[in-house]
Amino acid sequence: MTTGPAPTPTRLRSARLAIAAVFCVHGAVTGSFATRIPWIQEHAGLGAGTLGLALAFPALGAALAMPLAGRISHRFGTRTALRGLLVLWTASLVLPGLAPGLPALCGALFVYGATSGMSDVAMNALGVETEDRLGRSIMSSLHGMWSVGALIGSAAGTVAAHAGTDARLHHLLAALALTAAGLVAVHGVLDPGGDAQAEAPPHFTLPPKSALLIGAVGFCAVFAEGADLDWSAVYLRDVLHTDAGLAAACTTAFALTMAVARLCGDRVVDRFGPVRTVRAGGVLATAGGLSVVAVRHPAGALAGFALIGLGIAVVVPLAFAAAARSGPAPAQAIAGVATITYTSGLIAPSAIGAVADATSLVVSFGLVTLLAFGLVAGAAVLRRGPAGEGGRGPAAQDEPAATRP
User: Fold this and answer.
1) Residue 57: exposed, middle, or buried by beta-carbon count in 10 A (0-12, 13-18, 19+)?
2) What is the pLDDT at residue 386?
3) CA-wise closest residue to 337 among 326, 346, 348, 328
4) Per the CB 3.0–4.6 Å rule, which of 43, 142, 211, 398 could disulfide with 207?
């Protein structure tokens, strides 16, 4: 991706802020949508079962569309592709509220997910490019900014819902504001150019082999994240018999733990390297899972869920960074890893429910604990590839930034 003269330090700092703003805008769209799901459900006249069916379509659209992102980035350039895809993503926010019934809502959410996934691939590719130019880790904090954006979007959506604002009006105003913010932000990101002699990627391709093992590590983390976000409150209520307020607070605390850990994670990655960071995170997440299933007390469960969030927080950003450096086609590799992780997020809630129906929620979180240990076993695949051996990243393997020449 990198061509042309190296940008100045001032330009790099500006580009880092710009790509962070892009991540924030992307997250704000998600937060804006999530808070108005009850309104959309009522407007479309859906029950719980049909709503659950509709909510599978964003992940389906993302999984099918993300492999196209590499071709789009090659055709138009990554920054130009990001500009167009981000506008499509912010504009798609208005579609679900317009759907009069289930078929239209499924189609709207498919488009919503497809544009989300493709813009996700493009912004992560530019995030890795900026990280490489800076020579230090920034991917964790970029994903932390996505979480900040989701919190901002959710807060605005909560205010709109409390005021009884029609979600169609709310989403139209949010889409206009976020589109404007996104266009300003994209204007400041790096324009890495491209290799005119490089062969264009296929229009649609399965994840490359280099992405499969990296994606498996991301799969473990996203499975744990999806399980905890959707089922931690249920676990406290049904297994530990807590009140609804404490159960809901558990989910909020888990999300905040992940956001804070991502914002602070780059210093840890620079100090210890991605492999040791993910291994240590896997140990924390495994300990958290053991606390959830073994300590039958709300305090033990709350501590366990917090440790899981802390342990898995930086895994997906590091997986995207490792994918981008795993071969000559960063967007294609990121798309492959993103497809695997989105699939994990799609199946995790239903898998936890199926295991719980067959056995118990305690056994379900035993599965989460086992997958958390997979981070310890698989962390080595996130090792930074040495220059000249197929990697795109720094010459260091997994050395802390302070020890690199």
Assistant:
1) buried
2) 41
3) 326
4) 211
